[in-house]
Amino acid sequence: MKKMNLILGLVVGISSFCLVSCVTTSTANNNVNTGYYTSYSYSKHQAKNTIAQTSYVINQAYEISTYYSYWVDNRLSRAMYYNDYARRLYSMHKYRSAINYSLLARDYALDVIDGCDDYWETFYYTYFGWSNRYGYNYNFGYANGYRDGYYDGYYAAYCARHHHDYRKDPHHNLHSDWYTNERYDRVVTNASNQSMRNQSHSGGTNTNNSRGTGFRNINRNEYYTQEENTMNGNVPDEKEMETDFRKANPNVEISDANLRKDNAVITRNRENSETFSTNTRNTTLINNTRLEKPTRVETKRPTEEKKNEETITPTRKDNLERKDNKENTTPIREVNKERKREVTPIKTENKEEKTKIDNTRKRNVDTEKKTNDKSTNIKNTRKRNTNEVRTNTRSKENNAKTDSNTRNRNNNSTSRGSNTRSRR
User: Fold this and answer.
1) Rounded to whole angstroms, how far apart are CA atoms 396 and 385?
2) Inside any domain, residue 199
3) pLDDT at 22 over 70
4) Looking at the domain assignment, is residue 154 inside a domain?
């Protein structure tokens, strides 16, 4: 009996040791390419959501890059290929590594969005009424603006960077507290807007990342959930991650030129983005991170009749209220839900008018032809008359010569007759 209990205890001990070894091995495999371990758990659900949301951000960055031909430092290709690699790691159940590469890829995509000056010049011109490149927007309507207060600080900092006093704008488009002397002086003093650029690109407080330049036009925290911000703190240094990526993907060339030809990875990213955007559970995240579509700016000044006739309603914000420093709130004029468009009717020609025009043209051609024929006949007649005059003149000259010769012969005959008589 004791021997049986000893054998049973030995079996249980060996089984427990094997189980712990398997769990440890699985955890180590799951945390490959990270360099260290943490107590934070990474689940399949977290990895899937992170990759999908990153695909959504990358897709917006891709639309901006292709629309404005903005290709700088291969950032977009790095974002696309890193997130595609994260998708492969996810399929191999390496969720932690997948999350790390996906979060870093999202930072690269945000670099592209924030750095495209063509997009933001158009954005501020359209939704705040002024930009450094295009000047004042004479078509700007109050309903065009962003009214949630979030972009007020970014527009104020944008104006300060370009030495523009937004308080003199003809459109009162910012919250009233931004027009106070104290706030304005603070914005001008801090023209680089460091208060909104204190977030690192990779992990917020992650000092391992060497980039950490911050953003000028977007709020980074809106693009990451609280859970992702926690995971961001464990993202390794980007150089280390790039080295591991190249080892695992020796045939992938990270360049924007190569990306533009790689339809397969672009299609996979777009499909993943659509899956994320159509999920109703992601509505809040989508509303916070949806960008306005890239457009071109029409700087032509409208006439007084057409001024402010067409308004562009932002897709990102609903009709909200502005809050002044006072206790009461003042409702904002309701946003036009439909855009007014001037419909230009298609010009159609009347068949009868067209027939009349054709007949008139035909008559003109016939008249011109007759005129040419008449002119030709006159020329021919003049030519014939000239020839006849010449012929008559020659005939008269010949006749005169003939008469002269005849007279001479007659005179000679008369002379010979008189000579004959005298001899006789």
Assistant:
1) 17
2) yes
3) no
4) yes
Q: Where are the alpha helices (DSSP H) in 31-116?
A: 44-68, 75-91, 95-115
Model confidence pLDDT, tens digit, residues 361-386? 767 766 766 666 666 766 676 767 66
Structure token pair of residue 273: 């983005």
pLDDT in tens, 146-183: 755 567 888 888 999 999 998 888 877 777 788 888 88
> Residues 6 or more apart from 273 whose CB is under 8 A from it?
52, 55, 56, 58, 59
Integer Cα distance of 243 and 136 in angstroms = 48
- In order of 208, 214, 232, 346, the CA distances from 40 in angstroms are 18, 26, 12, 65
Using the Cα atoms of residue 377, residue 381, residue 383 and residue 384 in order, give the sign of their dihedral. Answer: positive
Domain of 247 in residue numbering reads as 43-294+311-331
How many C-beta atoms surround the C-beta of residue 234 within 10 A? 20
Inter-residue contact 47 to 103 (CB < 8 Å)? no
Q: What amino acid is encoded at 79 in this protein? A: A
How far is residue 187's CA from residue 161's CA, in Å, rounded to a whole number? Answer: 9
pTM: 0.62
In a domain, 139, yes or no: yes
- Our count of domains for the chain comes to 1
Question: How much is the pLDDT for 406?
Answer: 63
Give domain status of residue 25, yes or no: no
